[in-house]
Amino acid sequence: MATSDEGNVGKVADTVVLEKMRDLEKLMLAVSAENEKLRNHHEQKFNELADKLQSMEASIQKSNNVSEIDESTVLTNNTKNMSSKPEKKFQLKHVFKDVANFIQYIYHYSNFEEHYNVKWSIAMIRRGNHLGFFIYCNPDAPADKWSIQTKLEYKVVGRVQNEIIRTFDYCYEKAGSWGFIEFQEWEEMKKWYLVDGNLTVEAKVTIIETTGLAKPKIRKFDESQKDISDVILVVWDTKFYVSKMYLAAQSSVFKALLFGNFKESKQSEVTLNGIDPDDFHYFLEVLYGEFVINDLNVEDIALLADMYDTPTALRRCEEFLLKESKKTVEMKLEIATQYNMENLKEKCRSQITTTVVQKKRKVTKKNPLRKLFCF
Fold it and tell me: What sections of the sequence does the record tag as coiled-coil (predicted)?
C-alpha cells in the first residue's frame, strides 16, 4: 500500500508540474506576442518620425541650394511683407484620452508649450450636450498691460479624415482661454470623432501684433550710440544705430545690402521690412556678444539668424538648445530641422532612438513568469 500511495503521489506531482509547464508555455507565447506587438508599434512610430524628418530635411535642403547671396535674394528678403507687420505662426496638437468619460464642466488641458514669449495650451470641456474647445494663453509679461492680437484656428480630427474647423480673431489682454463653448455636439463627437475613446485636436495660432511683452534689453542701439555708428537700421518705428563693417563681417546679406550695388549702400538710414523690432534687438545683442538667448526668444533669434545668414548667431542658438534649453526633444528636433542644425538633430535622433529601445524592453513592470515557479 505504501508503494502504491507513493506512486500516486508521484503521478500527482508529475501532473502538477506538467500543468505548470503548459501554463508556462502559454504565458511565454502570450508575452512573446505582446512583445512583438509592442515592438511593431514603436517601430511604426519611429519610422513615421523618420519619414517626417527626411521630408522636412529635403524641403529645407531644396530651399538652401544657393551657394551665393545675390542681389535678387537680398531684395526679396528686404521687400517682402512691406505693407504688414510680420506674422508669427505655430501649431498645437494634442490627443485627449478617455473623452467619453469627461465629467461635466471640468476643464482638461494639454501640456503647455512656449512660443514667442508666451505659454499656450489647448483646453477641452464637456458642457451639457456640447464639447467646448478653447486656446489658453499665459504670457511671461514684464508689463502690467499687454496684448496679443491673434488669428485662431480650432480643429477636431475624425476617424475617416473628416474634420471640423472654426476660426476666430481675438485679442488676448489677460491670461485665460478663448474659444467656443459649443464647438460640437457631444454625441456627434462620440460617434464620428473618437478613436479608441481618444480625441485628436489641433490649434493654429497666428500672432499679428503684441504689446507689453518685450524683455529688458542689455545693450543699447539707440541714439546714444550715434558717435560709434555709421548707419541706422529702421525697423518700423525703431531706429538701431550700428556699424556697417561689423554687421557685414557677420552676415553675407548685410554685406551685400550695405556694401553692394544697392541704393541702401549709399543711405545713412536703411529700412528693414517684415521683422519685429524687439526680435531684431535681441538678434543684434547676440551678434554683439551678449548672452541673451533663452527658451522664450531662441526661435525668434534663429529665424532672423537664418534670414540674414549669420552663422555665429545660429550657432549660438544651437549651443543653447544643446546645453541649456528645457524644450522637449520634439520641439528641439523641429527647430533643428528647420534651421539645419546638424549637431542638435543628431542629439535629438539619439534621444528618440534610446527612448524607443527602452520602451521595447519594458514589456511589464513585474515578471509575469515569477508566480509559475512558486510550487
Answer: 21-59
CATH number for the domain that contains residue 305: 3.30.710.10
Instruction: Give the 3-state secondary structure of residue 88.
Output: strand
Q: How far is CA 266 from the centre of its chain?
A: 42
- 285 has pLDDT over 50: yes
Mean pLDDT, rounded, of the chain: 82
**3 state DSSP class of 2:** helix
Question: What's the mean pLDDT in 95-124?
Answer: 94
* pTM score, whole prediction: 0.63
**Which residues on adjacent β-strands are paired with residue 109?**
123
- The more confidently predicted of residues 320 and 216 is 320
The domain containing residue 244 runs over which residues? Answer: 216-339
Does some domain include residue 106? yes
Domain assignment present for 325 = yes
- Work out how many domains the chain is built from and give that number: 2
Amino acid identity, position 26: K
CA nearest to 313, candidates 297, 328, 326 = 297
196 and 224 inside one domain: no
Contact between 261 and 71 (Cβ < 8 Å): yes
Let me know if residue 315 belongs to a domain. Answer: yes
**Residue 280 near residue 217 (C-beta atoms within 8 A):** no
